[in-house]
Amino acid sequence: MTSNVASAKTAADIMSQGVVSMEATDSIQDAMQIMTEHHVSGVPVVDDKNRCIGVISTSDIVSFVEADQDALEGQIPHTENWFNPETQKWEESMFSHDMLGEYDLVPVADAMTNDPLTVHPQMPVVDVARTMMEHGIHRVFVVNDDRRLQGVISGFDFVQLVAEG
């Protein structure tokens, strides 16, 4: 029965609306604060017309900071473990949360993933799920024909769909 319900639903039917977003000029420190406050692992980056131009995620920030710190070679005396919600694994990183303060002037544009995978509001939910699985992602942004952000679909939205079956 769940598959019949899911096959009739579209991205617009299950997406979460009122998505918090950022601009490319906001700082990496701002991104970390927004992710912490909203309990999310990624935030869409939009332009002044609310068009989705990128995504900044915890893994983007970790990769950026680690690359930046690797350039300083050996100036960080210890590593820290952190839980990566995208891989669902504990990972080791060569920076502390205190150190992120130095990234309060670095724009998210320097670390974000450009042109994130998006779907149209009328895409069938089954196709959204397939797309997410094929690309190994756990969130996809829903945009209209002008790429204006309409919502987000995460793995949790699929859990909710099945639970409400």
The biggest sheet amounts to: 4 strands, mixed
| CATH classification, class level | Alpha Beta
In percent terms, what proportion of residues is strand? 15-25%
SSE order in H/E notation? HHEHEEHEEEEHEEH
Radius of gyration: 17 Å
Q: Tell me the name of the CATH homologous superfamily.
A: CBS-domain
**CATH fold-level assignment:** CBS-domain
Q: Give the number of DSSP strands.
A: 9
> How would you classify the helix and strand content by structural class?
alpha/beta
Supply the number of helical segments: 6
Under the CATH scheme, which architecture would be assigned?
A: Roll
Note down, in words, how this protein is organized:
With 165 residues, this protein is α/β, with parallel strands linked by helices. The chain has one domain: CBS-domain (Roll). It is 35% helix and 23% strand. It is built from six helices and nine strands; from the N terminus they run H-H-E-H-E-E-H-E-E-E-E-H-E-E-H. The strands form three sheets. It has a four-stranded mixed β-sheet. Strands 7-8-9 form a three-stranded mixed β-sheet. The mean pLDDT is 83.
